[in-house]
């Protein structure tokens, strides 16, 4: 009888599952809806099971969730209550819940030492050195995640108010953003007061777009953001002795490199595989008896 | 028969009133409770009337609110609905509601041209040039008020997380702040997620205290804040052609000067009088037939 292993990559918009045999070969995949264990754990459980069944079906197998061991990489895994609630209700033989960052690291750098920086609406950096995982930044928008999409968008709104007040020169970027608020700074303030990180992040593509055209304010904002990323990467390099693969992941990963310090830009490489592949690999390692590195991370 | 004029300085913690004769001589003062017209307009109205009656009493006069003209400097005066609600219910013969900044300006620089910077939990800069008022910054914590107490406190919390992650060196300031959160960065994050500007601002005295002891992180934070203040003062100087009195007011006014650019530090002078005195002066100017400058400002 063949043993199968499940990897799950679950987040706020979708849940993806991959089924692999004990050699780690993926034989089926499935996708379902949101699996946010913090805001709606029951729906998350439903979608985790649904994506898993679809992976069995794609593999040409009768779905038998109770027979498999799984590793789930879930956003929000740092909140103990939610994890305990979900873990107690999972349909699998055995299961481990890790952070979305841990499966992304495994996918991107495989079993070797190395590090990733996830730069999207937020930022987090994860390094593996001699098998140990270390997490840097990722504390969220309010007091961390310098250089994240949310922070860049916030800086862009701030910049347009500075320009409105003639504290900074008015540039095309500030003019374009102010125009989106009907030219009224009060509208910017009203928006910012209630804005969530993702709301600020919606202005970030504009910053990259105008920086490419040479807009001084946009370039200044990106330099500020890049300094935040560079400093976090320096901390990561200290942890890893600058050895192994270094990958940027997340929505801003393709955009940031031209603005980063050369010492980092020159070390960046493409991820080996995606986070779902990382989750499957961890499932095989954790439960397959394969010689592997057990995921350990903050949270 | 003598005409009397009332000045009111109302805010979130107290309401102060001063009664003056037509020459602007203050003959009585009164103080009551909070007068926040946004959050509790009815209580604000009650406290405005109470402080006014006490000013009559101190002047040895029978309270006769319906006989006086008043100028009220109130925080939250930029929200039209609240102003209209309160204005329609004031007990005075005639009354004008202006911002707290406008009465502070009048008190600090009198009738001449000049400017003030109010640096407290938030910041706002008001300049008068050839009789016209101009407001700079003051859009609030989320996308403005660089260098404000709220921003400095937020930077201090951010700095202690950067130090925790070894992105920046751990200094005494970061160690002290982290200790207030039981050494657990999660506690910092939880606090920051719900913190209001005043909550962040509570960490600001610590920043000045440690900067004075030479703490590198504290000095860096204050330099960042001071750059924000310097740039706003540059914008103010452009408006005023660097003429007239320049005063810093607010809780951080005594602390900031050593960190400001020399070009600003050398121009700072003490305010002539306080905001309440400014409100009375504006009441006499506005309603007393005296040759005066009518307050006009954004909002």
UniProtKB/TrEMBL annotation, chains A, B:
Keywords: Kinase, Transferase. It holds the Pfam family BcrAD_BadFG. One of its GO terms (molecular function) is kinase activity. It comes from the Bacteria. Residues 6-255 form the ATPase BadF/BadG/BcrA/BcrD type domain. The keyword DNA repair does not apply. This is N-acetylglucosamine kinase.
């Amino acid at each position: 009888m063949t043993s199968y292993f499940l990897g799950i990559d679950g987040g706020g918009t979708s849940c993806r599952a991959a089924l692999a045999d004990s050699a780690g070969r993926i034989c089926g995949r499935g996708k379902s809806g949101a699996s946010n264990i913090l805001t709606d754990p029951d729906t998350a459980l439903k979608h985790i099971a649904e994506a898993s069944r679809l992976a069995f079906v794609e593999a040409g197998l009768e779905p038998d969730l109770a027979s498999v061991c799984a590793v789930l990489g879930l956003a929000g895994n740092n909140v103990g209550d939610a994890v305990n609630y979900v873990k107690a209700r999972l349909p699998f033989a055995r299961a481990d819940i890790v952070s979305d960052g841990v499966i992304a690291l495994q996918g991107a750098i495989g079993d070797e030492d190395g590090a990733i920086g996830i730069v999207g609406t937020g930022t987090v950096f994860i390094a593996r050195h001699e098998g140990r995982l270390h997490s840097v930044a990722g504390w969220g928008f309010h007091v961390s995640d310098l250089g994240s999409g949310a922070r860049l968008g916030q800086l862009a709104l701030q910049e347009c108010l500075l320009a409105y007040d003639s504290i900074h020169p008015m540039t095309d970027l500030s003019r374009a953003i102010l125009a989106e608020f009907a030219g009224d700074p009060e509208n910017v303030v009203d928006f910012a007061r209630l804005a969530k990180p993702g709301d600020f992040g919606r202005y970030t593509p504009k910053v990259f777009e105008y920086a490419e055209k040479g807009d001084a304010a946009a370039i200044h904002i990106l330099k500020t953001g890049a300094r935040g990323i560079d400093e976090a990467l320096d901390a990561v390099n200290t942890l890893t002795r600058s050895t192994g693969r270094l990958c940027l992941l997340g929505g801003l990963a393709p955009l940031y490199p031209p603005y980063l310090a050369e010492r980092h830009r020159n070390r960046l490489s493409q991820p080996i595989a995606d986070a779902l592949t990382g989750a499957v690999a961890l499932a095989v390692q954790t439960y397959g008896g394969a010689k592997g590195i057990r995921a350990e991370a903050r949270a």
